[in-house]
Structures are given as C-alpha cells and as structure tokens.
Amino acid sequence: MALYLVTGVAGFIASRVAEMLLAQGHSVVGVDNLNDYYDVRLKDYRLSRLMGEVNWQAGAAANRSQFGGRGRRAAGAGRFIFEAVDVEDRDGLEKLFKEFRFDAVFNLAARAGVAYSLENPHIYLSTNTQGVLNLLECQRRHGVKKIVLASTSSLYAGCPLPFSEDQPVNTPLSPYAATKKAAELLAHSYHKMHGLDVTVVRYFTVFGPAGRPDMSIFRFIEAIAHSRPIQLLGDGTQSRDFTFVDDIARGTILAAKPVGYEIVNLGGGRSPTTIAGLISHIEQALGKKTTIQGHPPMAADIKATRADITKAGALLGWEPAITFEDGLAATIAWHRENESWLRAVIP
Asked: Catalytic residue at 176?
C-alpha cells in the first residue's frame, strides 16, 4: 500500500479522494489551512468524516478548542493524518516532505470560483500558483516523482464545444483560470527539467453531497427547500457538463499512474444541462416551485461547457458512472438529512 499527500483535504473533492484512498487500504497525509472562503462548518463536516468522528459538530468544536484549528490529528490507526498546513507555507511543507516518504501528491488545494477571483486576484495567485510551485520544489528536493494536479474547465473559454485537451487555452477570462494555467505550465517545466511525472486533471462543474455552498446546485437546493428566491446570473440558458463528485474522485485517483506529462478532462461527457433545467429538476424533486430574481450575467463566465472525455477513457480507463439525475437525487437526499444545520450555512 502507498502513502499519499492530499492537499486541500477538507475541501469538497479532496476529502472524497482521501476517503477513497483510505478505503483502498492506502495511507493519507492530508493538509488544509481551513480558511473561511466559505462556511467552515462544511470543512469541519468533511474532515470529521475522515477522522471517523460520529458526532462531527462535537468533534469539530473539540478540535478547534484543542488546536485552534491548527495542529496534527491522526485517525484510523494512523493511516490518516491531518496536518493544518497551508500550501503557501514552504517551511511547513518542507517539514512534511522530510518526515514522510510520499509515493505521490494529489494537489487539490486551491482558491476556487471565477467571481471571487475578480475581487481578490492576489490570493488566487498565491494559492493556485505559488502553492503549486512550493509543492513542486519539495517534490524535486525529496525525490517524489508523481503529482496529480487539479485544474479547471474554465480554461476553455472561447473554445468550440466539446472541449478537448489539445485545444489552445491561452486566453483565460478570469484570474482563477489564469492562475490554474500558470500552475499547469509550472508543472510542465518541472516535468521537462526535473523529471516529475504529471497528470493535470481538468474538472467540469463538480457536484454532490457536501459540495461548496457558492456552487449553483447547493444554492438552488437550499433556496427552493426553504422558499427563498433564487438569485440567477444570466437568463438560465447557460449550460454545464455537471459531473458527480464520486466519479471525479475516482478519475483523480486513476490519474496517479505514470504518464510523463498529460492533461486529461474529467467531465460528464454527456449532453450538458442548462441552469433552467437544473432548477426544474430540483423543483420536481422537492415538490416545490421557486421564484427567480434575475441579474446580469458575469462577464468572465462561460456560456456552455462540455467535456470530450475520449482521452480519459483511453489513458485512464475512466468514464463517469453516475448520471446527472442519480447524482442530483443523492445530493438532495444529503441536504435533507443535514437540514438542521445546513439552513444556517450561508451560500
């Protein structure tokens, strides 16, 4: 069995990657700075699941009381270790690489979201680009050859559908996309100059239980469930290649195989769903109608996304197994099960 470093481990996708790795019998050192970009209760929830805490709210409160959100915790007979380290902290990462001999790195730590990057571009650069450089340098210095680097379909702005990995992505519309492109280029240079083995996985609109509250599915479910109006940017005709988080996590783990340097799309690969269609699906599932308050579209937003996943199938043997409808049903069920505390979460 292997030992993996998973960054951003309290995040939506990374926590699921860590869960799957542990279920496969591997060991995981997870790092996260537990920042408050969105409601930290969701991060507490995900981290507590990894720690095996039955009452996650009590566990989170105890952890914060003991560590102030910082420090080291271990669970699962030491097979999962959480370390409150920021990827921007070079010294903190260096200590980890000295202590542990990692078989590979899954770098899923990131500042995500197009809109917020327009307001705070500096933190996107420091996390998404400088943080990646810090990891690559640690890998170079300590002989850790493999990295799986999470990237984004936002890079495909202006490209024709479906989006394929060989399309030029040199005109990003947002600081978020630009910093992800810079990270891809840094990883390529470390592959060429230092022999690192790199798989870049470009994610397409990931959704599922315990998702980010700034994402549309989370916001819409909570708004419709509690009879609040939906705040909609654009006219609802924009469409997305929604991809269930379990499929994304499984593909991310498969991407740890040796490839040299490759970029791989992980997306639904089916007909995209419009935002209006998404709202309709949620209304039907909840048995409630909603009201919509329209707003102008965001200039940096992409009108439609659709992944060409041919390469993922050929290189990784991966294709999505969970339909949009089944994934949405599982997501809504999770919201219902956690209604008591989710109603206080601010989207």
From this structure: yes
